[in-house]
Predict the structure.
Amino acid sequence: MLKLVPRRHHHHRHLHHHNLPPIVFISRKLTHSLFEDDPPFSKTPKPQNQQTHNQNIKKPQKDPSNKKPQINFPLKSDLPFDFRYSYSEINPSVEPIGYRETPKFSPFGPGRLDRKWTGTTALLQKAVDMSGVEEQRNAILGEPLSEEEVSELVERYRHSDCSRQINLGKGGVTHNMIDDIHNHWKKAEAVRIKCLGVPTLDMDNVCFHLEDKSGGKIIYRQINILLLYRGRNYNPKNRPVIPLMLWKPYSPIYPKLIKNVADGLTFDETKEMRNRGLNSPPVMKLTRNGVYVNVIEKVREAFETEEVLRLDCAHVGMSDCKRIAVKLRDLVPCVPILYKDEQIIIWKRKNTM
């Protein structure tokens, strides 16, 4: 056990100083006056000639030729397609019925782009010669790769520890992703793209828009992993001008996906179908940000024996449930009749299978 030592009174310290030799007493006084704080944390005195030494050192002058070129707005981009926030997850044939913000709020910023923002797209100003665009793309891609060259690129970029990777989420092929792809192509011949979430329901659509919007070619596809090749004659200095979206635009208001009475059914029949779906075992269970490559095929097989199906989407999120229901409606095809508590109920529809 530790014992408390009683504090000495002030006059004892004076007595102790008087008992010390005079030289030791003077040295302790001097050190106490020079370093009032704890010595390890005390300030070190600066040398006297440091200021003159700094004045003699000349700072290197900046070369005016190395300055970044100033960008003149509005930007003009020769990309031969309309600019959208997402190319793979937005159907241009479906017209919105309203907007959450006025179309004048362009996500590219005020006065930064020469294209007019309509609320969903930035339209082209002039018609594009697609034959000339295709010739230019073929010139950049060059001769097709041999099997040895493809296997070498696949072995270099297909692994999960690849530094040239882009993650594709529920937004699908977004506009700013095209710029990320070209940034990777500066130092790499191919980019590894890992797809997760709702876009994996239709990987063919994702592959099409990646090749169409970037000008590259997919040389490897394994479940949800893609390798996008830039081409033999790709030159980073001649990359296209890609104006970036400064923020994500608000999604417009689209027609209601699930109607009170399904097309082809009465009110009572619709209610009965919903109850049958809720009480039936789920065909499959989907996880959040999962890989849904085989979902469409399994749903089609289940519709061969069942009329109403239930998909368990617990913990997926309501926004993703709606996106999944839209994909199922277009790809199976089927009729979503209910989503409740993250459960999707779909109906086979008469005379469709």
Observations:
- The chain has ten helices and ten strands.
